[in-house]
Structures are given as C-alpha cells and as structure tokens.
C-alpha cells in the first residue's frame, strides 16, 4: 500500500526536506520535495500527490496561503501543515482551510508515523469509495437490462430518449417483465441520477397507508403516528418517484395524486403546512390504463397527466431471442451468489426454454434457473432440472403432430430416456414408443436409450 | 559495487567484549565478514546547543565522506543522543541503498529510563538497530511484519518487540540485493 502513496514535502529548510525525504523513502513511499510554494504549485499542477506536507513559515508565499491555493485547484490531496511556531489559532485556521491535520516541529517520530498512517487509511477509503460509486453507477445503468432482441433495443432507445427530459412516463408490461429495471435505467441516465429514486408499490398499501406513505404525516395525525414522518414525494425531492402498480390506486387517491402532480406541492397527513418537492414521476402498470379510463375506473385527467411518454416492455415470449442471454445471465448470477463455478446448460434445455410460454415472464425464467442450480447435480443444467412440463403445449404449436412430438420428447427426457418408464408414463407399449421415436426422429442429446425396467 | 564486508566504526568507548558479541550477531544475519575500526572525531562540530543533541544528518554525511568505502557497508557506532531537524530524537539512520549508516546506543540503555541496567538486553537492542540500518544500506525499506528487524521503531519497547532477524520477504530481498551487488 505504501509504495503507491506519493508525498510532496514543501519546506524552505534543506535539512527538514532531507530528513523527511529519507524518513519517507525508508518507509517505502514515493517522495518529492519543493523548497518553496511556487515550486510546489508547479509540481502539484504537473503530478498528483496523495499527501502534501506543508511548512507554514516560508519566505514568499507561506504555507497557509499555499494550502488555500491548493484547495482552490480542487486538488484532492491530503494536506498536513507543519510549523515550529504552534498556536491554537493557526492550527484551527489550517483545519478550517481544509488541512487534514497539523503537526508541530520537531515531532516525535511516532506522531508522524501515526499521522501518515491515518492519512493513508483515508486515501485508501476514498479510493474504495470511488470504486464503489463506479460499481453503483454501473449497476444502475442499462447494462442490467439483458437483451439484444429488436423489441428490447426499441425499449432501450426509448429509455435513452426520455431519460434526459423531465416528462412523466408510464411503463406498461406484463408482470415480471422488468418494469422497475426500466424505471431505474431512466432515473440513472437522467440529470436526477445523483438524487434518490424512491419506489412506492401502490398495490401493497391500503388507501390510508398510501396517503401517509406518499405525503408523510405529522406527529399525532393518527393512532400510532408518534413522530413526524417525511412522505415519499418529499424524499424524492430533486429525484424520481416510481409509482408501481398505479392502476390499483383508489379514486380518492387519484384526485390527490393529480393535484400533487400539477402543483408539485402537498400537505402532510395531519399537517397544515404546504411542502413543495421537485420530483419526476415514473409509473408502472400491468393493466390497460386507457381501457380503465373508458370503463371509468381510472381518472382521465390523471391518465393524461401521467401519460406523456409510454414505454411498453414486451413479454418474454415476444423476445425469444433474448432467452439464451437471460439464461446465461441468471446462471452466472446464481452461481456467483451460491459460490459455485459456472454451470453449463444443455442446448436442448435452451431450445425448450425458447419454446416455453413464460406467463410469469423474466421473473419465472429467473426462478426456474435458480431452482435448477439448487436442485441440479452442479455439473450441467439439463431438461429434467427445469420445471417445463406443464406449459409445453405451446400456444404457437397448433398441429397435433408437433404437440405429440414435443410431449413424447418431454416424457423421454423426464425419464432419462428409459423406454420402459417412458412408455408406462405415456400409457403405450414399448414398441409403440419406439415407432413414435422413429416417426418423429427423436434423439437424445447426450444419453443412450435405456432399456431398464 | 562489490560488497565483501561490513565495517563497524566505533566513536567513543565501547567494551571489547560487547563489540565482539555484536560482531557475532551481525555476522549471523548477513554471513559477511564483519570488521571493526576505531574512529576519532571532534563531536562538538555536530552539537546543537539548543537541543542538547547531535545532528545525525551532519554526522552521517561526515561519516560517508570519511569512512565509507565501495567494498563495504559501514555503520558508525556512537554513544551520543542523535536528532534530525524534524524529529525529537532518532536511534539511527542510513543512506537507503548506500554505503553507510549511523547507530546510537544512547537511548537504548535501560538506565536512561530509570530501570536497572541489562547488558544483554542492551546488546540485543543495539544489534537490532545496527542490523536495521545495515538493511537500509542494502536497499530494504521499513517492513510491516511485527517481528521483522526492518519494522520501524520509535521507542525501545518497539525494538524489544521485534526479532533480531529479517522476515522471509526481507531476507529474500536482502539476498537479491546481495547477489546483485
């Protein structure tokens, strides 16, 4: 760790510079010296130093002024000031001006070692912080949305175009299609990305709870309101509020929501002070809002207020091309979380996944893969690890010929191509099953036909 | 440069028996011939009356000029209190990857801290200090391993805590340096 840390010593006295130089070199740091503030500034502009040790008393520009100049350059270096003339005032001023610490010459060798060790820890922490920040940004970016299909490309293109605006967005799509991920992608690519994205699952809350959740409440507003509490609209100030399952909101709350969206102000439950908040609204629903408007169960004015842009996330069955990619992504995700090496998946299993309807969409695929990794043998994900039986009568397969072919193959795979067991399950004799295998040209991917009982 | 020996130059009085034991300990660590020399110096030129201490930087430069040779790693042994401008005191210092260093016995004696004298402990401490400075002359930097002799020490207790020998990593680096020279 020490080798990576660079130190600049700024002192007009040769002996001090030399002593500190030797001391730090022996500790394995990268060290440079400057005999005055001018040379120091030149060096700071041409190279980055993790720690800068500055003497306060120097001819020309003194250490305090140098400290201020360095800080004005938006330099992130840790600055330690040193002086032989210690006074509380200068120490306080140095710290106010942004110095990390203050040390009086001559110092106890141990004091300096502690100081540098603390500064090193600080540097390490800020490096870690930056790395973590980068990771968070990556997580929030669209890389989390897996898919190369035309349908997803269209969605991502829409995300890109709406993210820079402040317009309200409605994300529609079946349950489990990843509407919340799309909302996160819009937020993290918008100018509001450094402010919160506050999610509210409207469907999970009763009307009164939702009201208190969205607008907050004052102490004593209702039984159990023991403290003042900020609402989600208030928390989302400068950021984005994501209202999931917006179609479940009651008519009364729809009126309240409309008012808040129009004025961007609201009053906490039990309060009398108007609070304003600058937020962007993204809603999601798996219902057809327009139809609800026609039926009279969703307010038309609220619908038009929300529906500036609509993004429709396609169901998984309309993006079959993405299934291999998503499968690979989930295998990787769960193998990592379960601390297992990456497990390959049989090609035949992928093919069957592509034929599957997935009424639960990506969430269903994800659960399926997780289950396969948990219950499988850990070497390969095979067809029998995937619970696909119930749904193989694919709506797109209409011919009886195809349905029979798929069903027989499924049973064969289920019984590990054991002809006796498969025939028994199909309630046909073995000869019939052999004839069917021949007729449909069915082949086992990696197993030989077994003739066991 | 081809280092074939280690030279200890003494300034001030050191008992012969003490020095012989010191040589033995140093030889055990470096496996190089250790020779002894007696140096003479008017220390008043290096005395700083304000601090009542001796300027280690000035002394080190003087020793480098007068006693260091290309075929030896030279450590000057002294029994006065050393300082460098930034620190209240130091036990010793050396040129990193250089030819010479300086080690003081002044602050290593138990009696200085009001404790009963212990010649063996003093010998151990001084040997550790000399080996530490010699390590620097071979290019070794401070080590984080608690018991390595190259660990930086501020107080005698720190010196007591570490071993007289190098940790495996420092030993490896030392051998690399010795082979390169």
Description:
The complex is a heterodimer of chains A (453) and B (181). With 453 residues, chain A is of the alpha/beta class. Helices cover 46% and strands 13% of the residues of chain A. Chain A has helices at 14-26, 37-46, 63-72, 88-96, 109-140, 150-163, 179-188, 207-215, 232-235, 251-263, 289-295, 300-306, 323-337, 347-355, 361-375, 400-414, 419-426, 430-439; strands spanning 6-10, 30-34, 51-55, 78-83, 101-104, 169-172, 197-201, 216-217, 229-230, 240-244, 265-267, 274-276, 280-285, 309-312. In chain A, α1 links the parallel β1 and β2. In chain A, α6 crosses α7 and α17 packs across α18. The longest helix of chain A has 32 residues, at 109-140. In chain A, 32% of the residues are buried. The model of chain A has no long low-confidence stretch (mean pLDDT 83). Chain B is 35% helix and 22% strand. Chain B contains 5 helices and 9 strands; from the N terminus they run βαβββαβββββααα. Chain B has a 5-stranded mixed sheet with strand order 2-1-5-9-8, with helices on both faces. In chain B, strands 3-4-6-7 form a 4-stranded mixed sheet. In chain B, a hairpin with a 5-residue loop joins β8 (92-94) and β9 (100-104). In chain B, α1 packs across α3 (119-137). Chain B is globular and about 45 Å long. Chain B starts with a strand and ends with a helix. The chains are: A alpha/beta (453), B alpha/beta (181).
């Amino acid at each position: 760790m020490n080798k990576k840390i660079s130190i600049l010593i700024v002192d007009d006295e040769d002996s001090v510079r030399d002593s500190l130089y030797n001391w730090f070199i022996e500790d394995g740091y990268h060290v440079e010296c400057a005999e005055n503030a001018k040379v120091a500034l030149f060096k700071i502009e041409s190279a980055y130093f993790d720690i800068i040790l500055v003497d306060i008393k120097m001819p020309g520009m003194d250490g305090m002024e140098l400290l201020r100049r360095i800080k004005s350059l938006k330099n992130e270096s840790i600055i330690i000031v040193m002086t032989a003339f210690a006074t509380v005032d200068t120490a306080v001023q140095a710290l106010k001006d942004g110095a990390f610490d203050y040390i009086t010459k001559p110092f106890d060798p141990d004091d300096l070692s502690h100081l540098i060790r603390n500064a090193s820890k600080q540097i390490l922490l800020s490096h870690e912080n930056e790395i973590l920040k980068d990771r968070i940004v990556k997580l929030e970016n669209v890389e989390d949305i897996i898919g190369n299909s035309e349908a997803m490309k269209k969605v991502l293109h829409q995300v890109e175009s709406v993210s820079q605006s402040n317009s309200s967005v409605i994300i529609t799509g079946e349950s489990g299609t990843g509407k919340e991920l799309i909302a996160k992608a819009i937020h993290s690519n918008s100018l509001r990305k450094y402010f919160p994205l506050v999610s509210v699952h409207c469907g999970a809350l009763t009307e009164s709870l939702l009201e208190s959740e969205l607008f907050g409440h004052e102490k004593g507003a209702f039984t159990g309101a023991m403290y003042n509490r900020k609402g989600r609209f208030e928390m989302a100030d400068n950021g984005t509020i994501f209202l999931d399952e917006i179609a479940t909101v009651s008519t009364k709350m729809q009126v309240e929501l409309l008012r808040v969206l129009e004025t961007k102000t609201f009053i906490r439950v039990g309060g009398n002070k108007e609070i304003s908040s600058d937020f962007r609204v993204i809603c999601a629903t798996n219902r057809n809002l327009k139809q609800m408007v026609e039926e009279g169960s969703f307010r038309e004015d609220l619908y038009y207020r929300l529906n500036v842009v609509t993004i429709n996330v396609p169901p998984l069955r309309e993006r079959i091309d993405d299934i291999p990619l998503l499968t690979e992504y989930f295998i990787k995700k769960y193998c990592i979380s379960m601390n297992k090496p990456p497990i390959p998946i049989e090609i035949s299993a992928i093919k069957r996944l592509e034929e599957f309807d997935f009424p639960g969409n990506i969430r269903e695929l994800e659960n399926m893969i997780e289950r396969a990794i948990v219950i499988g043998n850990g070497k390969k994900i095979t067809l029998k690890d995937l619970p696909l039986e119930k749904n193989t009568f694919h709506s797109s397969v209409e011919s009886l010929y195809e349905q029979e072919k798929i069903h027989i193959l499924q049973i064969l795979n289920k019984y590990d191509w054991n002809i006796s067991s498969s025939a028994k399950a199909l309630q046909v004799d073995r000869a019939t099953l052999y004839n069917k295998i021949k007729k449909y040209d069915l082949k086992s991917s990696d197993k030989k036909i077994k003739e066991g009982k | 440069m081809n280092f074939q020996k280690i030279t200890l130059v003494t300034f001030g009085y050191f008992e012969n028996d003490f020095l012989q034991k010191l040589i033995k300990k140093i030889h055990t660590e470096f496996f190089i011939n250790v020779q002894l020399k007696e140096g003479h110096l008017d220390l008043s030129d290096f005395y700083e009356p304000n601090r009542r201490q001796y300027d280690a930087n000035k002394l080190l430069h003087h020793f480098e000029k007068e006693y260091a040779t290309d075929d030896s790693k030279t450590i000057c042994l002294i029994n006065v209190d050393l300082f460098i401008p930034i620190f209240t005191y130091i036990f010793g210092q050396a040129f990193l990857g250089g030819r010479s260093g300086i080690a003081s016995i002044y602050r290593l004696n138990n009696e200085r801290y009001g404790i009963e004298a212990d010649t063996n402990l003093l010998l151990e401490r001084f040997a550790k200090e000399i080996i530490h400075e010699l390590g620097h002359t071979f290019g070794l930097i401070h080590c984080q391993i608690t018991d390595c002799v190259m660990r930086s020490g501020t107080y005698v207790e720190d010196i007591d805590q570490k071993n007289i020998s190098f940790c495996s990593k420092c030993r490896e680096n030392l051998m690399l340096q010795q082979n390169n020279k």
